[in-house]
Amino acid sequence: MLGVVQGLTEFLPISSSAHLRIVSGVFFGRDAGAAFTAVTQLGTEAAVLVYFARDIGHLLLTWLRGFRFPAVRATPDYRIAWLVIIGTIPIGVLGVLFEDEIQTAARNLWLIASTLVLFGLLLGLAERMGRQRLELQQMKAADGMLLGLAQAMALIPGVSRSGGTITAGLFLGFTRPAAVRYSFLLAIPAVVASGIFQIPDVFAGDGPTGAQMLVATVIAFAIGFASIAWLLRYVERHSVYLFVWYRVALGAVLFVALGAGWLAAV
C-alpha cells in the first residue's frame, strides 16, 4: 500500500511524504518514518533515471566535456548541469543540519495539515501570477539557487519537493513543463543520496523487513514511471489548480480528523 502511495504522489505537487505519513497513521496506527520515505523514493527516482535516461546522459556528457572544451561551457546544457549541482546544495546542507527535527517534530500531522493548505495556496498564486514565458534553457544561476531553496522546503512533509520547485519556477516566469522537468532533474542527486544514506535507519527497531522494502520500492518505481508520463502531458494542457484544490481539501479533512480526535498527531 505504501509503495503505491509513494509511486502515485512522488511527482505530483501534493507531497508524497505527507501522504505516506497520513496513510501510515490511518491504516497502520503509526508513522512508517522518514527513513522509509527516503528509501522508497529510490524506486521513484529510478523511474526518473529510466524515463529521462537520454536527457540525463546528454547533460552528464556535456558537463564532463566542458572541463576539456571551453566552447562547450557556453551551451545551455552545460549551464543546466551545473544548476542541478548548485540547486542540490541547499537541501543537502539543511538535511544534515536538521536531520533530527525532520525525522521527529516535522512529521506532526498538525504541521502537515498546515503546510498542505499553505503551500497549496502558494502554488495556486504562482499559477495565477506567473508569466510562464521562460524555458529551461533560459535558466540562470540565481534561478537554480532559488529553485534549490524551494526544493529544500520539502524536508518538511506537506510542502512537496515537486510542488515547491514548480511553485518557485512559476513565480520566476518559467513555463509549467520547464518547471516540472527541472524539478525531476533537481531531485535526482538529493533523493538518491538521502535514500542510500538512510538505508540502515529504515531497518532499525521494529521497522519493515528487507522483503517489504523491496516490494514497496519496486511498486513505487512502476507506478512512478507512469506518473511521470501522465504529469508531463497534463501540465502541457492544464493548470495546476487541480492539485491546489486537492491539497486544500486534504488539509481541511486532516484538520477535522485531528480536531475530532480521530487521528493522533504524532
UniProtKB/TrEMBL annotation:
Q: State the membrane topology.
A: Multi-pass membrane protein
**Hydrolase: present as a keyword of the record?**
yes
Transmembrane intervals: 80-97, 109-126, 146-172, 179-199, 211-232, 244-265
Q: Which UniProt keywords apply?
A: Antibiotic resistance, Cell membrane, Cell shape, Cell wall biogenesis/degradation, Hydrolase, Membrane, Peptidoglycan synthesis, Transmembrane, Transmembrane helix
Indicate whether Cytoplasm appears among the record's keywords: no
Q: What else is known?
A: Bacitracin is thought to be involved in the inhibition of peptidoglycan synthesis by sequestering undecaprenyl diphosphate, thereby reducing the pool of lipid carrier available.
NCBIfam families tied to this protein: PRK00281.2-1, undec_PP_bacA
State the name under which the record lists this protein.
Answer: Undecaprenyl-diphosphatase
Q: What is the source species?
A: Pseudonocardia adelaidensis
Q: Name the encoding gene, please.
A: uppP
